[in-house]
Structures are given as structure tokens and as C-alpha cells.
Amino acid sequence: QVQLVESGGGLVQPGGSLRLSCAASGIAFSIYEVGWYRQAPGNQRELVATITSGRITNYADSVKGRFTISRDNAKNTVDLQMNSLKPEDTAVYSCNANRYMGPVKRDYWGQGTQVTVSS
After folding, report:
1. Would you say 50 and 42 are in contact if contact means Cβ atoms under 8 Å apart?
2. pLDDT digits (tens, 9 = 90+) for 29-78
3. With helix as H, strand as E and coil as C, how does the chain read?
4. Are 119 and 15 contacting, i.e. CB atoms less than 8 angstroms apart?
5. To the nearest 10°, the Cα dihedral for 18, 43, 95, 107?
6. Contacts 24+ apart (CB under 8 A), 42-45
7. End-to-end CA distance of the chain
């Protein structure tokens, strides 16, 4: 069984910080690209940040400089440190893990965790 479980979401005031964590099981975690995506009501799901197996990171322009993605292969976790949060960061944040084996893609998702930025 493959399972990705997010935690750490909640309510935070503008300017505050939150740390999300995703725990993976059932996959060879260290060889997967992992990342965070988010979806707000009425919007499509968008990339927030990814980190490759080689620890190369990629961030959406809207979060660059505020969010930091990291992975701990010993714990099979990927975290998202979110600082200077804005109301527009409000969304369901989901964890993703993927890799290609030739033309075949393996792509897994967690259930998501709600982040609400409001005073």
C-alpha cells in the first residue's frame, strides 16, 4: 500500500507561520520527487514547491522567499515551512510523490490538509 498523510494545517493569522509535514509509506521515498500543491475554492490545483531526489527545489513565484520545502529520507517525510503567510495562501495543501520508469509515471497524492490564513 502507498500512503501519503499530511499534517500541520490549521488557522493562522496573516504574517504568521505554519509548518506542514507529509509522511510517506509504501514507496522507495528517497528516489521520488516530492512536493506540495494547493487548491483554493474555485481555483485549479497549483504547484507550490517541489524537491527532487537530488534535493533540487522549485517554487511558485507567489511563495518564493516565504516558503521552504525540505525532505528527510530517513523519516520518509517532506515538509513545507510557510512564513509570512497571506490570506491568499488559504487553500487545501496536498502532498505529491512521483517518478518515471521509462514512459511509465508513478504519481501519488495525499488527502490534503486545510490551511486558513485569517485574522
Report:
1. no
2. 999 999 999 999 999 999 999 999 999 999 999 999 999 999 999 999 99
3. CCEEEEECCEEECCCCCEEEEEEEECCCHHHCEEEEEEECCCCCCEEEEEECCCCCEEECCCCCCCEEEEEECCCCEEEEEECCCCHHHCEEEEEEEEEEECCEEEEEECCCEEEEECC
4. no
5. -170
6. 43/91, 45/94
7. 40
